[in-house]
Design a protein that fits this description.
elongated
C-alpha cells in the first residue's frame, strides 16, 4: 500500500494481493467457479471484487490454451483467411476499447460513479475479449490451435488496457477532479461493494 496521491481519496488502495487469493480455484471446472462466486459474495471491498473478477477473466483466457491443446493440432495445415480475420477483429477491438476509455464517468453521486465505472469496465471486457473468442472459433474454422494465440494476444492487450490498476484509477481521478467534482473514484469503488 502506497501513499495517497490525491486529496479527494480518503481510503488506501488494497493492491492486487487480496484479489489473488483463491485464483487457483479457476483451474478446477465448476467447483472453482462456485467457490470463487461464494467468496466474492462475502467480500465487502468492491475494488477487491472487481480485481478478482478481472483476474478470473484473464485466467479463463489462458486456460483455453490448455483445452485447445487437446482438441486441435497446433499446425493443422491451410488456415486460409481465418487468422487474418482474427487480426482485423483484434485491431478493431483494441481501437474500440480505446474509444470507450475516453468516455467521462458519471459524477452525480458516489454510487453512480462506481456503477458507471463498473459498467464501462464490463463493456470493455466484452470488447477486449472479442478477438480471443473469435480466435477460439477460428481454431475450429481454420483447423489450427495457433489461431487462438493470435486472438489471445489481442485479448490480453485489451485486458491490460482496462485493468483496474492503481494508475488507471488515479488517471480517472484526475479527470474527475479536472471536471470539478469532489468525488473520489477509489473511495466509491471500495465502499460500494456491488450493485
Amino acid at each position: 500500500m502506497g501513499p495517497k496521491n490525491n486529496d479527494a481519496m480518503t481510503q488506501e488502495d488494497p493492491g492486487w494481493l487480496p484479489s489473488l487469493r483463491g485464483l487457483w480455484w479457476y483451474a478446477i471446472p465448476v467447483v472453482g467457479t462456485v467457490t470463487m462466486f461464494r467468496a466474492r459474495r462475502k467480500e465487502t471491498n468492491g475494488l477487491v471484487v472487481l480485481r478478482s473478477v478481472f483476474l478470473g477473466l484473464v485466467a479463463a483466457l489462458l486456460l483455453f490454451v490448455v483445452a485447445l491443446s487437446f482438441i486441435a493440432p497446433w499446425d493443422g495445415g491451410d488456415e486460409g483467411w481465418v487468422p487474418w480475420a482474427v487480426v482485423v477483429i483484434g485491431i478493431a477491438s483494441l481501437a474500440y476499447v480505446a474509444r470507450i476509455r475516453r468516455r467521462p464517468l458519471s459524477t452525480t453521486s458516489p454510487e453512480a460513479l462506481a456503477r458507471y465505472y463498473r459498467a464501462l469496465f464490463f463493456i470493455e471486457v466484452g470488447v477486449a475479449e472479442a478477438a480471443a473468442l473469435w480466435g477460439f472459433a477460428g481454431v475450429f474454422l481454420g483447423g489450427s490451435a495457433w489461431i487462438y494465440l493470435v486472438g489471445l494476444a489481442f485479448g490480453l492487450v485489451g485486458l491490460w488496457m482496462i485493468a483496474p490498476t492503481r494508475s488507471d484509477i488515479e488517471r480517472r481521478q484526475r479527470e474527475i477532479s479536472a471536471a470539478g467534482s469532489p468525488l473520489s473514484l477509489l473511495d466509491a469503488l471500495i465502499s460500494i461493494p456491488r450493485p
